[in-house]
Amino acid sequence: MKRINIFFTKIVLAFCFLTINSLTYAQDFSVSKIPSELLKDANAVIRLDEESFEILSKAEAKQRNRLVVTILNEKGEDTYNEMVVRHDKFTRISDLAGNIYDADGKLVRKIKNTDIKEFGYGVIGNDITDAKFKVIDFSRKSYPYPYSIELSYDTRDRNMMFYPSWVPTNNGKVSIEYSSFKIKTPVGFAFRYKEYNGASPVKKTVDTDGLPLYEWTMRNHAVLDNMPYPLPENEFLPRVLTAPIAFEIQEYSGVFNNWEDFSKFYYILNKDRDQLPTGTIAEIKSVVKDAKTDREKVLLLYKWMQARSRYVSIQLGIGGWQTIDAMTVAAKGYGDCKALSNFMAASLKQVGITSYVALIKAGNEAKNNLDFPSSQFNHVITCAILPKDTIWLECTSQNTSAGFMGSFTGNREALLVMPEGGKLVSTHFYESDENAVSRITSVKLDENGNGQLSVRANFKGMQQEGRERLLYSFTKEEQKKWLLSNLELPNMELENIEYSKTDNRVPVVTEKLRIVVRNCATRTGVRLFVKPNLLTRQLALPNSSKEQTADFYLPLSDYNFTDSDSIFFEIPAGLKLETSLPDLKIESIFGTYSASAAYDNHKLFYLRKVTIKGGRFAAADYPKWIDFIKKVRKADRAQVVFIESKT
Fold first, then answer.
1. CA-to-CA distance for 379 and 13, rounded, in angstroms?
2. Are 264 and 398 within one domain?
3. Which of 4, 463, 605, 624 has its CA 20 to 30 A from that of 510?
4. DSSP state of 463
5. Name one Pfam family in it (predicted).
6. pLDDT in tens, 379-427
7. Helix residue ranges per DSSP H, 177-258
8. Residue 451: which residues within 8 A CB-CB, separation 6 or more?
9. CA 335 – CA 306 distance, rounded (Å)
10. CATH number at residue 620
11. Which candidate, 222, 238, 237, places its Cα nearest to that of 43?
12. CA separation for the pair 375, 184 (Å, rounded)
């Protein structure tokens, strides 16, 4: 893993390691030496990025890194003015140092111990861990741009489940002058690696000490074009993944040739940690005593588990991979994703239901390179196996519905952990009609165009996730503030807000609103202009007008949905219809859109439905996508016009 700006996520299985050693290099880092093409659109330039991983044995390795970055502006400084270095019982930091250079490459400051702060990991959240981290402060806004920072670091690591990956560039505005990744091994030592997305092929040589050396490099890499719909990073950023074949950690040893091996090792690491206290077993039996089906047992026990436990990130023991046993979770009432998932599986076992924990990469649109078995997971969930059903269970949330994976763990592969060796299986894929909003709105307009709105909307699937947060995590005032910021209505006043949730496999959050909107319709002289599409989200046009030269990706969490609106307007007496809307239908490979309006007896009825299908599309289809957006946006701006009646 790279070592810059480590962002800590809520749910973590294992941490990367970072350390720094003393600087012993001298080199000209003046800005004048940077090729002009690397300055274009860049906020920072990586002048030198050297990462060396030396495998000493199946049980131990050491790593050396050196990084030099020229910061060109405030945005570049936002990224690089502070570094995070983590260490624990498996990773030892030997030294720490850094330098700062001016635009001419002259040394202006050495990093001192007073610039380095150390914290226990628990200070950043609800965590229990034996890890600590150091924060290296480069004194934000203390130096005129451009200036350069330099770091180097060493580690000694005894957790050989993980080998580093190399992703030399990112999708930000950072260019690279030179980056290298080296792995040195004992003679005859084997490991696995694979290059992706145009990463340079490995160069195999022998180091000065006669040991095998593998090297990958990148030179003069300009800032990537910021395309509006980039592919997932694992599909377009150059990278090299590496993994052990055989490894040791403490008293455990394992092999890692395929996913079955990895699953088997995780199973052995956590074997027999599913025992439960007698009292808890009795409680479990009581919870399900009236259940008529296995599915009902799963749902009851999941609700019971949610009510009696809470999530705490726990990174103790073997690299954070060995779970706290179910006995402890039963007694304490808390655990991390591993522990809570293990506790859930242990509880299901007591009522005769087969289940397994599963390793998965969690996060919105999180993607793995599953053709290369390696440690790419960061979360654990539970999978209950019924004769004609499979129920996925997210055990770290008190509010998630049983079976719902959503944007966090849905639409991807998970690795089942089984005694005989696991296998990759798919979590639920959420189709457009499962991520739906169905809204009914009644609007009473006065003669000046002011409106009183009564809204009832059902948010389903991934579209209910935001509303679920409003329901469970926001106060009434916070709900009101959020809605005022996100509903695209001018001059509105929220008179009432209500939320409720239905716990289905694809859950539904119901939103009820009463809203007063000034100038809901526009009065101009004798005419009233009504824009019937009031509350639906608008498809945004990309800011960039660049030609799309590569495949593009519409994220499923944003572009796999169906929105349906039924709006009923009560038109003031004294007005008659002047112009209405024709029925409209738009069809595309990206989805469909339909809208229609009808008027009768001072009532205007408007129906709108749009279905979008996300995913990967060819560059040749990009103009069709832009055309589809433009047509939908034009249709959504259409107006119905009323005029004063003279009779």
1. 6
2. yes
3. 605
4. G
5. DUF3857
6. 999 999 999 999 999 999 999 999 999 999 999 999 999 998 889 999 9
7. 233-236
8. 443, 444, 445, 516, 517, 520, 521
9. 12
10. 2.60.120.1130
11. 222
12. 20
Distance CA 623, CA 637 (A): 21
Question: Is residue 310 a contact partner of residue 333, using CB atoms and an 8 Å limit?
Answer: yes
CB 3 within 8 A of CB 168: no
Q: CB 330: neighbour CB atoms within 10 A?
A: 22
3-state secondary structure 390-419: EEEECCCCCCCCCCCCHHHHCCCEEEECCC
Considering the domain architecture, whether residues 438 and 391 belong to the same structural domain is answered as no
Residues 356-370 have a mean pLDDT of 94
Q: Mean pLDDT: which of 261-270, 332-341, 507-516 is highest? A: 507-516
Q: The domain containing residue 515 runs over which residues?
A: 432-644
Stated as kind and residue range, the H or E segment containing 94 is: none
What's the rounded Cα separation, in Å, for the pair 53 and 62?
6
Query: Are 606 and 477 contained in the same domain?
Result: yes
Q: Is 378 found in the same domain as 307?
A: yes
pTM: 0.89
Lowest mean pLDDT: which of 10-14, 139-143, 144-148, 222-226?
A: 10-14
Express each pLDDT in 520-553 by its tens digit: 999 999 999 999 999 988 899 998 777 888 999 9
What's the confidence (pLDDT) of residue 101? 95
* Tally of structural domains, the chain: 3
Query: From CA 366, how far away is CA 147, in angstroms rounded?
Result: 34
**CA–CA separation, 445 vs 450, rounded Å?**
6
Q: Is residue 448 left, alpha or beta, with left meaning phi > 0 and alpha meaning psi from -120 to 50? A: alpha
Q: Which amino acid, one-letter code, is at 457?
A: A
Half-sphere exposure of 66 (CA within 13 A, CB side): 14
443: left (phi over 0), alpha (psi -120 to 50) or beta: beta
Spatial contact of 215 and 173, defined as CB atoms under 8 Å apart: no
DSSP states of 294-307 as a string? HHHHHHHHHHHHHH
Beta-bridge mates of residue 19: none
Residues 64 and 197 in one domain: yes
Alpha carbons 507 and 497: distance in angstroms, whole number? 20
Distance CA 276, CA 328 (A): 9
Q: Are residues 455 and 436 in the same domain?
A: yes
pLDDT tens digits for range 75-102: 999 989 887 766 566 677 767 788 999 9
What percent of the chain has a predicted confidence (pLDDT) above 90?
77
> What's the length of the chain?
647
Q: Show the tokens assigned to 353.
A: 């239901």
Is the pLDDT at 279 greater than 90? The verdict is yes
In a domain, 552, yes or no: yes
Angle between helices 476-486 and 465-473 (to 10 degrees): 150
d(CA 154, CA 47): 19
- Region of 341 on the Ramachandran plot (φ > 0 left; ψ -120 to 50 alpha; else beta): alpha
Query: Is 457:439 a contact under the CB 8 Å cutoff?
Result: yes
Closest residue by Cα to residue 30 from 109, 103, 100, 88: 103
Do 437 and 290 share a structural domain?
Answer: no
User: What is the model's pLDDT at position 546?
Assistant: 77
Per-residue tokens: 331? 């007694």
Tens of pLDDT, residue by residue over 548-598, are 889 999 999 999 999 999 999 999 999 999 999 999 999 999 999 999 999
In a domain, 605, yes or no: yes
591-600 vs 174-184, strand pairing mode: unpaired
Bridge-based pairing of strands 508-517 and 527-530 is unpaired
